[in-house]
Design goal:
Nucleotidyltransferase, domain 5; five-stranded mixed beta sheet; single chain; 8% strand; alpha/beta; 49% helix; 3 domains
Length: 356
Amino acid sequence: MIAEEKALADFVAKLAACDRIAIDTEADSLHCYFEKVCLIQISGGGGHDLVDPLAGIDLLPLYDLICSRRLVFHGADYDLRLLRRTGRFEPVDLFDTMIAARLVGKTAFGLAALVKEYFGIELSKASQKANWAIRPLPQEMLEYAINDTRYLLDIADILESDLRRMGRLEWFLESRDRMIASAREVKERDESTVWRITGSSALSPRAQAVLRILWFWRDAEARAWDRPPFHVIGNDDMLRVAEKVANGGTFSMARMNGRRRKSFEVVVALAMQIPEKEWPKLDKVRRKRPSREQLDRSEDLKKIRDRVAAELQLDSSLIAPRAALDATAADLSSPALMNWQRSLLGLPSLLAPASA
């Protein structure tokens, strides 16, 4: 575990001889409201190391070095978003083994499935939901973390060879670049709709008023406690409370501590006082109905997609998700599909996308 400036400097010097580096991260989103990078796993030059971002060391020298090399991730989207929060992290070259596995036709494309297929090794999932912010990390968690990058470089070699053999390397590059561009997007939550959890649309307007105020109360409690919102109260419980209270029923929150339970009861009482004119209203979005021509075009594209998917033995949604088909049927110049997908469907390519 690299947790000191001198050790990190020596590690960076060692990595300078590597042209490829496998990397993964562990965070604490299941245990904290304010998610943070708790561990960075790195394999390169025949070694497997762990870097401790919680030790207060400057990670920029590490980032500058590894971002100048080819980085190998498995499912890079989440890791890229996480690492960018901690400093300047912009790789010049990236290979994502999850994207590659899907494009060569793997139906089981998780890391554990690939390790099992290629090396006959069963990876433990025991630490998958562990709290990575604890220190010191027990040996079981250290081993789990190391295994996340231990096999990645070999897997990347196998999959890149398959992509080239199958003539799908360009598919991979375009898919990877779209993923990188998506990971750069900053997602802002919409305060007017963020409380609309799964199941809320089935509630009465009055119950939705209760749910809305409960959601923001839970969010404030979770922030103050620095715990995930579900540690305060789960979505299903909120839905049940909202429906029961709106119908004049009672509820018991015995699992909450005294202060939080009293605060919860006050919030629910306040929610019941919200006048009807302030109850949530579901804005009806008027969507332009597709023309018969668009519907026929979408159905034709779907038939082509399904036929091509069967021929290539690929998941049809990988070739073209239904929403992307509909968007393309409505506007043939829509960027919903990548050029390799358009080519398989017999559509003309769009202008080459900007390099990631």
